[in-house]
């Protein structure tokens, strides 16, 4: 009887281990940083304001809460994901690709979907500067992160195309890491060595309101067309172990993008509120950015492979993706991207 009882217990334990995972095995809370703010991260704020993740979780048959943290910046975002302090993170393609490359043999971070597509603008307060080529001496360009930010990679692309492979990093010594608001202040006041700022929206437009500040480069001109500005990523472990929570988040993202397209006024309200209730431009100016043909909210990646190929060619990435499927989890939401 004892032997029979033990065998029965083993059989029961084995059955439990082999049984399909249920919804209760998934996480009950998502941890999502809101990012650096501005137009590129608007879908996250729409998701938060309208509790879209919670809504889609119920449709998936699970209960989810969301901890929306105010973490921003590529380094902080990456650390949050790697440490388990974030379920999903949002960042520009260069930051994502760096993390994808470094985690190929462990956490295997991959892209979930694109979030926004929009250009960045290189503005200067020096009337003598007509192009990036005029930057010299002790002049400095404010960028969000030296070497690996979108502006840094864009300037490397430009330098390599114009001056040759050995001049790829020609403009790196002129860059300094600064948050967008700090760069705006430096450029507008004209104090110090900051003579240019590679700005996202609406900071670029705020600078251009000042007399003497003008644009000398547009990121889309360098990449050859519209390019993903922000995108979502997570680890393969999270993706595989939490299929319903993952689906709920993606569903919420897509609905947020649709809501932005269908109700611009409400979306702008959310954006301004996310900026503390006071925008750097007036409402009409903010609306003109939101409704611009250059501002798109889509899950389909654009020019991410171009970033990857370039970064591998110059040695910033050890691994080269062969297809978009190497970078993103398989999904119809990213189909047709590049």
TrEMBL record:
UniProt keyword Signal present: yes
Keyword terms, alphabetized: Signal
KW Signal (keyword) present: yes
Signal sequence bounds: 1-25
Domain of life, source organism: Bacteria
Coiled-coil positions: none
Protein's recorded name: ABC transporter substrate-binding protein
Source organism: Jiella pacifica
Lineage of origin: Bacteria, Pseudomonadati, Pseudomonadota, Alphaproteobacteria, Hyphomicrobiales
């Amino acid at each position: 009887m004892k032997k029979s009882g033990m065998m029965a217990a083993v059989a029961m334990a084995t059955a439990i281990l082999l049984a399909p995972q249920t919804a209760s095995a998934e996480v009950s809370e998502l941890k999502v940083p809101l990012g650096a703010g501005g137009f590129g991260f608007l879908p996250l704020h729409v998701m938060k304001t309208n509790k879209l993740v919670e809504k889609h979780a119920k449709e998936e048959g699970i209960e989810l809460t969301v901890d929306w943290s105010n973490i921003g910046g590529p380094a902080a975002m990456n650390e949050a994901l790697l440490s388990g302090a974030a379920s999903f993170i949002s960042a520009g393609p260069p930051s994502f690709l760096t993390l994808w490359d470094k985690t190929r043999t462990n956490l295997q971070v991959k892209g979930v979907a694109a979030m926004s597509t929009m250009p960045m603008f290189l503005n200067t307060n020096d009337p003598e500067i007509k192009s990036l080529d005029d930057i010299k001496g002790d002049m400095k360009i404010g960028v969000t992160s030296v070497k690996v930010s979108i502006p840094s990679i864009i300037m490397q692309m430009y330098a390599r195309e114009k001056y040759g492979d050995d001049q790829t990093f020609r403009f790196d010594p002129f860059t300094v890491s600064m948050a967008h608001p700090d760069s705006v202040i430096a450029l507008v006041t004209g104090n110090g060595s900051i003579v240019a700022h590679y700005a996202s929206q609406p900071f670029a437009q705020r600078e251009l309101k000042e007399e003497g500040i003008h644009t000398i480069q547009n990121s889309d001109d360098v990449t050859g067309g519209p390019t993903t500005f922000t995108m979502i990523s997570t680890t393969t472990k999270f993706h595989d172990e939490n299929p319903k929570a993952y689906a709920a988040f993606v569903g919420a993202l897509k609905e947020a993008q649709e809501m932005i397209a269908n109700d611009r006024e409400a979306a702008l309200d959310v954006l301004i509120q996310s900026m503390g209730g006071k925008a750097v431009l007036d409402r009409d100016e903010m609306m003109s950015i939101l409704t611009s043909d250059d501002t798109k909210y889509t899950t389909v990646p654009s020019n991410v492979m171009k970033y990857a190929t370039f970064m591998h060619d110059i040695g910033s990435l050890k691994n080269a993706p062969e297809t978009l499927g190497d970078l993103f989890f398989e999904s119809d939401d990213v189909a047709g991207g590049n």
